[in-house]
Amino acid sequence: MEDKKSLIYNCAKELFSKNGFRNTSVSDITKKAGIAVGTFYIYYPSKEKLFMDIFMDENIKLKRKCMESVDLTKSPLEIVRQMLSMNAEGMRSNPILNEWNNRAVFSKIEQLYMEENGSQVADFIFNNFHGLIKKWQDEGKIRRDIDSRIIMMIFAAIINIDTHKEEIGPEYFPQLLYYMTELIMLGLSDCPA
User: Fold this and answer.
1) Which residue has the higher pLDDT, 125 or 12?
2) Closest C-alpha among 22, 91, 3, 25 to residue 12
3) Interior angle at CA 106, CA 46 and CA 129, nearest 5
4) Is the distance from CB of 30 to CB of 5 less than 8 angstroms?
5) 156 vs 176, residue with greater confidence
6) For residue 109, what are the contacts with CB-CB under 8 A and spacing of at least 6?
7) Model's pTM, two decimal places?
8) 120 pLDDT above the threshold of 60
9) Mean pLDDT, to the nearest integer, of 68-97?
10) What average pLDDT does range 92-103 have in this prediction?
């Protein structure tokens, strides 16, 4: 059974990468996999669920790569900037992750996925970066009077501002993100006694 599920997953990943979410149908996936459409639904309840499983796996890989590549000897501000830059480049260069920028489609897919899986889907970001936040707090590099989980949500907000790029104006967005990150990190670095 796992072989067929893996086959469906791999064929879908290839098709989503090549054609995008909208231009890939369940029929396309099953044809490529050499299985019946009904077999698809034994393993996945929908194309959206399969896409989000692939998206989340790709996102986890990207976040791990970012964490492994970041220079932890730098200041918290420089590390956060490095991570945001690497994350943005990774999202742009991966066709599956780049679907994030198609908000008309992605927000619907994401909503369905969250309804099925709950909030634990973001645990990989939390788990990978939370330890670093606590370390910075222990070392006095960032504020200890703010719960580390709240700081994690501040970083999530920085990442999610990307979904409002069009509203902000693409011509302003890179500078806005740069300054917003700097101001937040300066505020977090202002360690009260």
Assistant:
1) 12
2) 25
3) 105
4) no
5) 176
6) 21, 48, 51, 52, 55, 99
7) 0.79
8) no
9) 89
10) 86
43 Ramachandran zone, left/alpha/beta (phi>0; psi -120 to 50): alpha
Q: What is the Cα–Cα distance from 113 to 99, expressed in whole angstroms?
A: 15
CB 155 within 8 A of CB 129: yes
Distance between CA 5 and CA 109 in Å, rounded? Answer: 20
Tokens describing residue 41? 């639904």
Give me 101's structure tokens.
């920028």
Q: At what angle do helices 148-160 and 76-93 cross, to 10 degrees?
A: 40
Say whether pLDDT at 123 is over 90: no
- The number of C-alpha atoms within 13 Å of 182 and in the hemisphere containing its C-beta is 6
Give the dihedral of Cα atoms 41, 47, 48, 50; nearest 10 deg: 70
Q: What was the pLDDT predicted at 116?
A: 65
Place of tokens 């967005």: 173
Residue 107 in this model has a pLDDT that exceeds 90? no
The average pLDDT across 10-32 equals 96
Residues 6+ apart with CB under 8 A from 45: 116
The one-character DSSP state at 178 is H
CB 47 within 8 A of CB 24: yes
Closest to 185 measured CA to CA, from 125, 141, 150, 131: 141
